[in-house]
Amino acid sequence: MQHHHHARQAAALIASLFLVSLGACGGGGGAGEAETKAGATASGGSTSAGTAGSTSSNSSATGTTSSSASSVNASSSSSVSSGAAGNAASSAGSSASSAVPVSSTLFTESFDSATSTTLFSTYRTLSTNSSQSMFINKSGTVTLNNGVVSLDGARMTIGALSSADTTSGSTPGGELDLSKPYRITIEIASVSGTSTKAFQVYVDNNTTSSSASPRGSDSKLYSSAISLLSAGSTITITDSIGSSASFLSLRTESGAVVGINSIRVEYTGGTASSSASSAASTSTSSSAASSSSTAASSAASASTSSAPAGSGSIAVAATQSTTAGGFAQPAAGGLPVFDSNGKVIGSTLAGARVKYAASLDDMNAIITAARTDDTGKKVTAGAYPLLIVYSGNEDALIAKIVADSTIDANHNCPAGHWADAYREVPLKDYTAGITIIGTDGSSANFGITVVNAGNVIIRNMKIGALGGASNDADMIRIDNSSNVWVDHNELFAVNNECNGSPDKDLTFESAIDIKKNAQNITVSYNYIHDSKKVGLDGHTQSSGTSDYQRTITYHHNYYRNVNARLPLQRWGWIHVYNNLYDGITSSGINVRASGLAQIENNWFQNALNPVTCRYDTTGCGRWYLRNNNATSSADNATYNITWDNDGGAAGTLNADTWTSTATSADIDSLAGKITYAYSPAAAQCVKDNLSKVAGAGKGFAALTCN
């Protein structure tokens, strides 16, 4: 198991933490918490050098010993190999590298010759005071057995000049020079006790309170529930907090027992940075996943982190939608793990790095940084999976664009925004996996473009209005990408067309466009409203293997006051079930260009041309209708469903009698594609309950029927 933590931590330790895992396969983290300010990795497996038992002399190591202290050649220990749980890492803002080169070793200890009696007396003393032990037992029980030092509800300092308690204004001082960026490596030998209790590492703080140090909350470098640690794991902390007279403190909370094989402190080169210049993020991975009280967990590994202050939260529903439920099967990126306050503290995917963004610039900086691996090598496809937590708010900008784009009686708008620059988060070519999660109350006036990418999840984002339709400003665009899940988002603009817009059709572009060779896409539980163009499925009538093989599922989406393209399908196969359509002002599911659509258990009302083929030049597609609320032409009046024939234009066909046009061969073709498990609810349940759970801010709630 490996834990990596690479950014500044700003949140306090959360007591009695439980993890809510929302894995696509029910994977989860462990009960408890992982928290750091710097960076930490835990690896089940061996380090490339410096494991317990490997020794060499190093004159730069601080202190003197009465016996061999297992010094490590710094140049041989710049990387940590990953165990079965994988390399779990997390960073945010200006993230540090988990594989930074080592310039020299400051301190190393393997406790090989220490005993419970000598550890705090003669085993190893300060280089500046031979009568003072390098190690001080501040509280609790510390024992030595076969080179393993065990902390049982204990606090032990390393390098402190005395045992005097630290305060907010003073410390006893220390002889560890931590004025330069450094890396701390701790090899875990054993773990036992209460799973939710924590193992912690502090700098210049020998108390149990983060505030009892001149460094305040920055003094806590690392904290992890022991459920996230295991024998054989390695914790690595990369930081720059400290001075030329610092000390370290190791602590296990009461009820937690952690055995340590060795500890090493190395300089990593570079210059020190202040705590204010680093963003907060952490992560831990555990190969021993445990279940939480609200979501079942499998044996999958999880990456967890403690969220920084101001990162927002999500009120997670008791019954959640945790899988795509359609064609999409994103294999990387992961789903969020929450603490008891609804803050995202990690990912269900071991190896995913959790980062926090408060703006469009933050989002793009995080993705740019993720295209460089820890050795500095460019990796266009992504150096690691990402989970980005977005907490920005652009309500004011959205409201302005809505007001500027609302027509008067003559279809004039105060100010069109179609010529605006397109503000976007480009995920082009990123196939390592990205999950984007919006926190409750966040909002965005920018789009997300998924091009030549894969393994992408977009959830709980509120994306509104946008500008730049002349620049193809879609809210979400998916081109030539696979395994993309768009879930529980709110997407909206203004359902009208302003005079003066290009082609009288570009006041706004689409909510969700899926085009070209997009494969295995699921669009679920979204609330899409007040939009003229909801979405394309295909960009051209022309056939060809690059365009007509799309497989897309649309389920549990709530469409209200929308004009058209629900979707506009060209070629391929779509599965449309358990959606609520309330207020279609032009046309709904438009099945064109030989596309095949299975449309079942949906609710349609107040709709013009809800299922149709129009503007087609190559031959209409075909639909297979079953178990929708409308089943015959007699139902049209009941549900206020109306039809037109597009002025008699060629290539127009309506489903006004609610009969299928699909042949038996078409139905077989659909069955051959729709091989995933699903259990559609009755259409009446969709009508009664879907609006309560679809969209952002609904805690990823799943539809339930009484």
Keywords for this entry:
706 residues; mainly beta; 12-stranded mixed sheet; 10-stranded parallel sheet; 31% strand; elongated
Secondary structure tally, helices? 5
Low-confidence stretches: 1-100, 270-301
* Shape, per Cα inertia axes: elongated
What is the count of β-strands? 45
Give the structural class.
mainly beta
Sheet with the most strands, sense and barrel status: 12 strands, mixed
Approximate helicity band: under 10%
Distance between the termini: 43 Å
Kindly report the average pLDDT value: 81
User: What percentage of the residues does DSSP assign to strands (E)?
Assistant: 25-35%
Query: What's the alpha carbon Rg, rounded to whole Å?
Result: 29 Å
Molecular structure report:
The protein is mostly beta strands and 706 residues long. Helix content is 6%, strand content 31%. It is built from 5 helices and 45 strands. A hairpin with a 5-residue loop joins β18 and β19. It is elongated. The relative contact order is 0.11. The N terminus is likely disordered. Belongs to the polysaccharide lyase 1 family.
Please provide a brief summary of the model.
This protein is mainly beta. A hairpin with a 2-residue loop joins strand 8 and strand 9 (148-158).
Write the layout of secondary structure elements.
Elements: E1 2-5, E2 20-21, E3 34-36, E4 64-65, E5 87-88, E6 104-109, E7 124-125, E8 135-145, E9 148-158, E10 182-193, E11 198-203, E12 220-225, E13 234-239, E14 248-252, E15 256-267, E16 284-286, E17 302-304, E18 336-338, E19 344-347, E20 353-357, H1 360-369, E21 386-390, H2 395-404, E22 424-426, E23 434-438, E24 447-451, E25 454-459, E26 462-464, E27 476-479, E28 482-487, E29 490-492, E30 512-515, E31 519-524, E32 527-533, E33 536-537, E34 551-555, E35 558-564, E36 568-570, E37 573-577, E38 580-584, E39 589-592, E40 596-600, E41 603-608, E42 611-613, E43 622-626, H3 635-638, E44 641-642, E45 653-654, H4 664-673, H5 683-693
Parallel strand pairs: 1-5, 1-13, 20-21, 21-23, 22-24, 23-25, 24-27, 25-28, 26-29, 27-30, 28-31, 29-32, 31-34, 32-35, 33-36, 34-37, 35-38, 36-39, 37-40, 38-41, 39-42, 40-43, 41-44
Antiparallel strand pairs: 2-18, 3-12, 4-7, 6-15, 8-9, 9-14, 9-15, 10-13, 10-15, 11-12, 11-14, 16-17, 17-19, 18-19, 42-45
Protein name: Pectate lyase domain-containing protein
Pfam family, one: Pectate_lyase_4
InterPro entries: Pec_lyase, Pectin_lyas_fold, Pectin_lyase_fold/virulence, PEL
